[in-house]
Specification:
Helix content: 25-40%
Strand content: 5-15%
Number of strands: 15
Order of helices and strands: HHHEEEHHEHEHEEHEHEEHEHHHEHEEEH
Shape: globular
Structural class: alpha/beta
Oligomer: single chain
Radius of gyration: 23 Å
Length: 446
């Protein structure tokens, strides 16, 4: 920063509040370095212990992160609503934005006809007493999950995958507990774990998902929960294979102290078989969102698991948000039942496969090793993220820095291919090759 934000306060609470104000107003931007403990203590005429306590509280709330010799810095996406000017900067004017990780709007099924039909048949308004999981939605979800090998005796719904995972973690864990998460992994999940006051333990990922050795190490370090992405892992595109699933099942067997959460966010878009871990531990849950196949605005995820876990999630929802709108549930059910929509989703999945494969092949032809077995993203190891992101931005391409997704994994960038057109593949690959000379490391495991 050209002018450093002046942190104020004479107590740990006042100092932490001052830092939060700086983050909220944008004066302390993402990744901004905070002063060293002793330096700030001297500046404010307080004890180092007072500043250390303030920083500890900020870390507990997920606003800052301490990274060894890099000191204490503002998290990339702290859990505080900031002014619009402080949000993630928009791509440079005229740049092609491949950083968002969202599905292609052109490939999403239209909702209008289903909403019109729903309006005609929805019937009288429902009240609080009758608002819950619709039995017909639960049954349809049960059929779909069972067909994929997921036990689905108990069903509830949440407001999206992340909402479901948050409810699961809150039902089983307390602040300070350790959670094993994929590294690199879903940025939103890493932010959620930090905001909940939980301690993340990074598990290396390869093309078959979390490594067995990494999960074993996380368990040895006291992980109370393990979150696994079944397919289309964000950001690497990993998918849990049959052999990996069997090995992880063997490792997790007999762990009554561990909550196992599986996230199948790609669902119908994934064109690889599902190899679920469901039931490997006594406490488990499987979460499947509808956002990627049917539209991000459809904030609904189906959640199944052991009876006690699902009961905790559903019970907590009843005394909080209450329920997921039955209007939304009926809309999702209508989409599920429509053969034309199912065909559109199938074609969208094929198109994502084609676009991702095309970029991977173009990068390989230029001597670059990237990863993306499934999903809508390509993960590209780089020697220096800042250099790579800046060079690509200057060439007219906006990509996401890997720091958003990493704990201890090697540097990389994430390129979203969902909207990538055929004519853009070679120019993008040329720009990447020019930005990455010499090429980065071959793998993405930490």
């Amino acid at each position: 920063m050209a002018v450093r934000y002046q942190i104020t306060g004479g107590s740990s609470a006042a100092i932490s509040a001052s830092v939060e104000t700086g983050i909220r107003t944008g004066a302390l931007a993402a990744d901004s370095a905070l002063p060293a403990v002793r330096a700030l203590a001297a500046e404010l005429a307080v004890s180092p212990a007072t500043v250390a306590k303030a920083y500890q509280e900020l870390r507990r709330r997920g606003l800052v992160v301490t990274a060894g010799r890099h000191g204490t810095r503002v998290r990339p996406r702290p859990p505080v609503a900031t002014r619009r000017a402080a949000l993630r900067p928009a791509p440079a004017p005229g740049a092609r934005d491949l950083s968002q990780g969202q599905p292609d709007p052109r490939l999403l099924p239209p909702l209008g006809p289903h909403l019109a039909a729903l309006a005609a048949e929805i019937g009288p308004p429902v009240g609080y007493a009758s608002s819950a999981v619709l039995p017909e939605l639960a049954e349809a979800a049960r059929v779909r999950l069972t067909a994929d090998g997921v036990p689905a005796d108990e069903i509830t719904v949440a407001g999206g995958a992340l909402d479901g995972i948050e409810r699961l973690l809150a039902a089983h864990l307390r602040p300070g507990d350790a959670v094993a998460v994929e590294d690199p992994g879903w940025a939103n999940l890493l932010d959620l774990v930090a905001a909940a006051g939980l301690r993340p333990i990074g598990v290396p990922v390869d093309s078959d998902g979390p490594t067995v050795a990494g999960v074993r190490d996380a368990l040895a370090l006291g992980a109370r929960a393990l979150v696994v992405t079944s397919r289309a892992q964000n950001p690497t595109g990993a998918a849990v294979g049959a052999d990996r699933a069997a090995a992880l099942r063997d490792l997790l067997a007999g762990r009554p102290d561990l909550l196992l959460i599986e996230d199948d966010h790609a669902a119908e878009l994934a064109h690889v078989p599902l190899h679920p871990l469901a039931g490997a531990t006594p406490a488990w849950a499987f979460v499947r969102s509808v956002s990627k196949p049917f539209g991000p605005d459809l904030r609904l995820a189906v959640l199944t698991g052991d009876e006690a876990t699902v009961s905790r999630v559903a019970g907590r929802a009843r005394v909080g948000a209450g329920w997921v709108s039955t209007v939304l549930q009926r809309l999702v059910l209508s989409l599920w039942r429509d053969p034309a929509t199912a065909e559109l989703v199938r074609r969208a999945g094929q198109e994502y496969e084609r676009r991702r494969s095309a970029l991977l092949a173009a990068l390989t032809a230029r001597g670059l090793t990237a990863h993306g077995r499934t999903g809508i993203n390509v993960w590209l190891p780089v020697p220096d993220e800042t250099v790579a992101v800046t060079a690509l931005r200057d060439a007219g391409w906006s990509v996401a820095p890997g720091a958003l997704f990493r704990i201890g994994a090697e540097p990389a960038v994430r390129i979203t291919v969902s909207t990538l057109d055929d004519a853009e593949v070679d120019p993008l690959a040329d720009a990447v090759a020019a930005a990455l000379r010499p090429t980065g490391p071959d793998g993405f495991t930490a």
